[in-house]
UniProtKB/TrEMBL annotation:
Signal peptide: none annotated. This is Uncharacterized protein. Keywords: Membrane, Transmembrane, Transmembrane helix. It comes from Riccia fluitans. It comes from the Eukaryota. The chain crosses the membrane at residues 37-57, 106-130, 161-182, 188-209, 245-268, 280-305.
């Protein structure tokens, strides 16, 4: 049985010399997916799809909170008449109606954030592990992926927490910059479209840099046993030298469909007339988005492996269950 898996795995792809561009990485991503369709389909429905649901719901709550509680910049010209104050209510009404809603929203947001983080760790671990096994010329089943995840949780949790911190810091910087620019535009001659363009450009550059380093750090954490957290990020920056053009190409290819699907989900799902139609539309779009997200993570795993080959460094899979060999400079196939 093991020999059959080995022979089947060797039919995937072609030799990697570390010089792949975005097109070659995407092509090999689809080849690996087709070579082990059953395994990656199970990963998609059991791990990636729920993670996508949590991610979309978190985005919805975050946008709602920003809309409700973010301070508004001064309006140019005469401001509209403020709405009349709400009718007075007693302290009991305040405790029973206002605060419970805020606390429920806070609890839901934190719960979704924690569940999304847990699922994201498993998404990264499962897909990087499966791609790494295909890179070593092996074919695995979903049971093998599940068995390999526990040994990756600790390292991916440390790296993931730092990744969340850097992502949050990036979001705060972009939000603060956008607020300041919009405030400046409201009291000066700077057009609002120019403000939006500047904010979007800076935000996209920071988003590209942050997500690229995080994904490379995930690869370091999975394949380099004992390296996680800030150490993984330092190693990721070292591997990314002379690879930023390839990373930019991959980001553009996957950012466009992910962004379009996310906008469609938030813009049109809640506009559906019926409740069941809304849920059905949301489920279909979330499933499509999860497929794109899965291919993105798989391409990131191949990008890491290609960068390691370019540096002539060993790629070890010996610390995984059922992996008592090292990939070295082995191809994805022959």
């Amino acid at each position: 049985m093991e020999q059959e898996k080995q022979q089947q795995g060797e039919k995937i792809g072609a030799r990697d010399d570390g010089k792949w561009g975005p097109c070659e990485i995407i092509k090999k991503t689809f080849e690996i997916y087709r070579g082990q369709t059953c395994t990656f389909t199970w990963i998609q429905f059991v791990i990636v799809f729920p993670c996508t649901i949590f991610w979309l719901l978190n985005q919805y709550l975050t946008r709602k909170w920003i809309h409700d509680y973010w301070p508004q910049p001064p309006c140019p010209g005469p401001c509209p008449t403020p709405p009349p104050p709400p009718p007075p209510y007693s302290d009991n009404d305040s405790c029973e109606k206002f605060f419970p809603c805020e606390w429920k929203a806070m609890i839901a947001f934190v719960a979704l954030l924690v569940l999304g983080f847990i699922y994201w760790i498993n998404v990264v671990g499962a897909l990087f592990y499966a791609v790494g096994q295909a890179y070593a010329g092996k074919t695995i089943c979903f049971k093998d992926v599940i068995a390999a995840l526990p040994c990756l949780w600790k390292g991916l949790a440390a790296t993931g927490l730092w990744g969340y911190f850097f992502s949050l810091l990036t979001g705060l910087v972009v939000s603060l910059l956008g607020y300041l620019l919009y405030t400046f535009a409201s009291v000066s001659f700077l057009p609002v479209p120019i403000v939006c363009l500047i904010t979007f450009s800076i935000g996209w550059v920071l988003f590209f840099f942050t997500t690229t380093v995080i994904q490379m750090a995930n690869g370091v954490t999975v394949f380099e046993d004992g390296t996680c957290g800030l150490q993984a990020f330092c190693k990721a920056l070292e591997l990314l030298k002379c690879k930023w053009c390839v990373a930019l190409g991959l980001t553009i290819v996957f950012f466009i469909p992910e962004g379009v699907l996310t906008v469609i989900v938030h813009a049109f799902t809640w506009a559906c007339a019926g409740v069941w139609a809304r849920y059905l539309f949301f489920g279909v779009l979330a499933n499509l988005l999860s497929v794109v997200l899965q291919l993105n993570v798989m391409a990131s795993a191949l990008f890491y492996l290609s960068a390691k080959q370019d540096k002539k460094e060993f790629i070890s899979i010996a610390h995984f269950p059922c992996s008592q060999s090292e990939a070295g400079y082995q191809p994805i196939g022959v």
